[in-house]
Every structure is written in structure tokens, then in C-alpha cells.
Amino acid sequence: MTRSGDGARRPDTLDSESLAAARRDEAMATNQRRLLVFAGDRDAGIDAAFDVVRGADVPDDEVTFVTSREGFRFERLDPRHASSLLGTTRTVVVLDAHESFSPNALGRVAGAVDGGGLLVLLTPSLDEWASHRDSFDERLAVPPFGVDDVAGRFRARLVSTLRDHPGVALVDLENQTVERDGSYTQGISFETPVPSIPRDADRRFPRRAYEDCLTADQSDALSALEALRRTGQAVVVEADRGRGKSSAAGLAAGSLAAEGRTVVVTAPDERNAAEVFVRAERLLSTLGTLADGSADDYHLSATTGGCISYVPPTEAGAAAASAETDALVVDEAAALPVRLLESFLDTPAVAFCTTVRGYEGAGRGFAVRFRDRLDDSDHDVSSVRLADPIRYAAGDPVESWAFRALLLDARPPVDQLVADATPETVSYRTLTPDDLLADEHRLREAFGLLVLAHYRTEPDDLARLLDAPNLTLRALTHDGRIVSVALLAREGGLDAETRRHMYDGGRIRGNMLPDVFTSQLRDEDAGVPVGYRVMRIATHHAVRSSGLGSRLLSEIRAEFETDADYLGVGFGATPELLSFWRENDYGCVHLSTTRNDTSGEYSALMLHPLSDLGRELHDRHADWFCDRIGDVLGDALSDLDPDVARAALAAADTDYDADLSAYEWRVVVGASYGPGLYTTAPGAFRRLALAHLTSPGRASLSARAERLLVRKVLQTRPWPDVADELDFHSTAQAMRALGDAYEPLVDEYGGDAAREERDRFL
To answer: Where's it found, cell-wise (predicted)?
Structure first.
């Protein structure tokens, strides 16, 4: 900026090359990054980006353009494929935000710029960007809403951060002026602790592994990971993004393999584990222990007999518990559900590596939802935290801007401020997007709680919260602090053409419940009622299990009682969650027949009717669910956890009639009170089991007896497998137990024919 003759500051005339050269020199001198924003015409922005590359004097192979345009001499990625940059570094990354812009893409590319590099953002005019619409907005415009209903609040907030954050240069392409030059030299520290190498007497991993560490933090993490050489150990490695935790895990895995040990590596996706294998392969090669021709992207073999293999999360627990496995390394643990994390505790030694603040996941969720269970396990637990950046120096303005703009570091209120919250002390309120934008602190509290509610919350979710026309947020506050939130999605109210399109197999965005009911369960009228699906609900960890979640749901029910036909929810089914929603008067109407690829869980859909139309929808799907579930449990759901089946059936909220004939009752009575056999008429036993499990309070059965009904009668498992799983001494004992289980069912559900047959044996 310069001053005019009257002393007023005016923008500098544009010279993109000189601007880029200055910011590049500054970035290299500080080992930080700088952000350059070119706002205005798209073609002019692309030309300016070429000027940046020239001015920064960067080789072509260190430059990536993320754009839907084609015809560049540099590497080009479509914005949909920006995830391929995760785990890689570039000197210059150009993100074209004129078309197909998404917060996810921004989060991915920001982390790919190396220290000394430049992130270049090409945008429409900043004054007009909030009203600009592209394909991302079209994805937010879920039926019956159109793209004109999508707001631009996320972009407006993003623009405000660009205009006032340090280290950000702003260029107005329309006026050919530099509004901000982005110069930033404050708060820079050049002193980074030097990595240390433990003495030979204190070290078990190879010296070379420690020599490959880039920071003292990474060396400390590697030292902590030496515990994996002993059984019964668990190591938690936490870090912000870009601190080298995956590299430390790779050095540890390579060191173990060099000793001849077998290491299983898992992560939400193979690409999340790429850095682990890169560092492990490099170490094994340097040590001379990498077996010739043995390395591929996700399997390494050592000449010592050791190996490192990637296994998907849903299979990793079983693989790691085998006798051949010595250690399990879980990368990006925060992005995995607790059920899977618990399954990893059967391995001899395990490392949980998790990102605390970053695109990959929410480490705070890991700490809240799983850490207490880990501490209660049989493992000796140790922890280490990495704070020093690897790819760039501390105080990097691009990192702090990305955290701020995408709320990667959003947190709920501190425990002390909400610890006294009870259902009686809280207030119910609507949190509109405008309310959240007007109070940054409240936005961070609300989004921080939503991050904890789900094992994978992405930057796109922030834009959905602020801009999607079908979403609305409700909360409970205690002394002004948010203690519980629920994100609701409006669904249904679809016209006949849209419903017909769904029925014929077409996908309709944002209408999950009507979509499943229509396309999978063949109910073309399911899209007529208007419902609100609870997408996420979260209560502050300091006041969990205190009734706040139920209080929030009751307030939502009262508010929408006259404005909607039903409330619904879909989630990965666990006994605890099914029971929670059942206690809040939601009825189970469907269990998916395929597992979620990441969580490994089957999904449950549940409804709470609010109107006559909603009651009709609920009742017919509850009836259909009970009619088909007996057959499905014997087929696609034959591996469903019996406690999940019990909880789902107990939540079915329907009067299921076993409808046994007099002959069938005689067979059931004969097998329970007399010498008969279950195999004579298994269908009768199945229907009677369903009658009990959908109304478990009518007859008294133990949990094990109900599991026996599920495993043998409904899932038709072989007797030896059932006896072994349920801890019976023999198959004969299990068979007798099944007969005993049907006695109270005969007494409760049997009519005259059943009682007459029973009395013969009594």
C-alpha cells in the first residue's frame, strides 16, 4: 500500500510476479507459507496464477492447479479429486474457486503446501462471492428446495477471514490493484528443538530410525512407540495435522518389522496410511532388511521374517488378534467409530495415532468417546503429543487461517462452565445460521459439539450448517453456554414426479428416510409426509448421561408437533443407541442389510410419528419390518450381533401377532414342556420368538435366553456354534435351554389349545 498526496492510503498497482516473489522470499526465509488471493475474472485469475509461478521461480513439477479447467502444463487435479493431495507436498498449489468450490477441497489443498510455499486462491469478486452459485450449492439444494434457496453465509464468513487474517495477500483483478500485500513477519520463531537420539542402553529401535526423525517431538513419539515391542501395551500419539505422527508410526512399524515382527496397519482408508508405509519402506531399505521384490503400496516384507500389512478397519480387529500378529498401528483413529476402536483392544500391542485438529478427523472426539474405555482396558496406556510442525515453521499464518476459516479447531465450552447443567437448569433455543455468524464464540461451541457427535466431520459440514436450506439447529444452553445440540434435516413433502423418480431407482439428495422407504422398501407414498431427521445429536462430555439429550428431543418433539408429520433418525446400530432412541419413543422400522464400510455397523432407521399421516407411515413400516425381519435375520443379517437384534426388535413399536395354529401350538408345547423337537416346525418357533422380542416385557426371559432365540431360531446358526458362543457346556445343554426358553412364552402367548397340551405334561 502507498499514500496519496493527501496522506490517504491507496491500493498498489498490480504486479503479480513481484508480489509473488516477495511473498515467496518471505515464506522461504521463515519456512512458513503465504496465501495469495486473486479475486475477479476467472481467466484473469488463471493468468495471474501463471505470473505467480514465474515470480516465485518454482519448477513446474512442484506446482499443482486444482481446477475443472484443462490445458495446463502443470499437474492438474479436478476439485473432486483434491483428496489425492493428502499426504503430499507442493511448493505452489492453485485452487480455482470459480466452479466446484467446496470447503473440503480447500482443507485438502491448504495442507499440501510445503514450508516456503504459496497457496493461491482464485475467486470471484469478494464483494460478490457470497451470492455466487456453483455445483457445490446445487448439492446443498436438496428437494423440494432449489439452488436459489441456498444461502452464501459460509463464503461471506470466508471472505471476512481473508480480509483480516495476517499473511494473506488480496488482489482485485477488476481494478488491477493489490488491496493487501500479505507481508507478515511477526511471531516467527526460528528455534526448533533438535531431535535427540537415545543412548544405546536406552534404545531398542535402530539408531537410523531416530536419525530419520525431523523434530524432537517426533523422536519422543518414536521412543514412546518402542512400547509396542511388549505385549499388553497401548500407545496414544496425538498431534495437529502436519506434525509427523504418521511418519513416526511408519518408523516404528519399520523398526518392528526389522526385528522380525508382524505389524498390522489400519486407517479409515488406504490413502490415510500411505505415509506409514512410505517411511517404513524407506527405513527397511536403508537398514538393508527390505526383502527383494516384496514391497507394494500397502504390504512390506523384511528379510528377518517381519512384515507390515494394511487391513481395512472392519477386518483389522480380527487380524490383529491372531497369533501371528505382534502389534497393530491405527492411523487417524479419531475418524473411526468407538465400536471398531474397542475391537482393536484384543491385539497384543496397539498404537492409536490421531489428528487433534485437522481435516482428517477430530481428536477431541477420540478422547471423549474412547479414551476412558482404553484406560479401563487391560493394556498399560502411555501417551505422547507432537506439537512442532514438520513441513513448515511454527506460527504459520496459512495454518492458523485454515483452522479459523474451516473451524478445524472448534471446541465445546470448557468443562467447568457446564458441569452443573441439568435438565432443569437449561434453556431450549433455536440457533439460526445468522445467530451463529453474529457470535463466533457460539458458532465454535455449536460446531465443536457437532464434531464430537460423529466420527467423521468435514469442512463441508460447516457450509451445510450455515447455508443448506433443509437444515436447522436446536440447542440447550446453560448459563448461556451450549451443552447439547441437534442438527435436523427436513425431509419429504415431495411431489409425485420426484417420488416416482425415487421409486424407479433415482437418487434424491438430502432425503435419506424417504429414499430408503421408497427405493428399497417399495413405498412410493413415503415421500408425501414431511419429517425432520435428527442428523446428529450431541451432549457435552462433562454432562453425559444426565438426561440432557432426552430433554432436547422432548423439546424438539413439542416444537414440531404441529409443523411436521414425523421425526426420524438413522444411525449405526448398537444396543445402547437403539435403547436410547426407544426410550425417547422412536420406533425401529428398518435395519440395513449391508454394513457401513468404515464403521462396520448395520444402520437402523427409527421414526416418531407426530400426525395421522406420520402415524400411518410409521405403522405400516413397523409392520413390514416385523413381517420380514425373521427371514432377513436368517439370511443377510445372519451375522448381526444378537444384542443389536434384541434391541432393534424391542424398539419395533408394533403389536406383532405370532398367529400360531392349534397344530403349531402343540408342536411348540411338545418341544418346551414335552419330548418334541424344534426342527418339526421352525416357522412357528420363529414367529413366537418375534412376538416375545418385540414385546420383551410380557414374558420374563434372561438376556442369554433371548440371545439363544436370536442366534438359533432367527439366525439359524449351527448348534455347535451357538453352544460355543453362548457358553453352554454342550449342544445338548443348549437344546434343553431352548426348550426352557419357550415355556414362559407358551404360558404368556398360548391360548386354549396350548394350555390343554401343556397340562398333559404338567
So the answer is: Cytoplasm
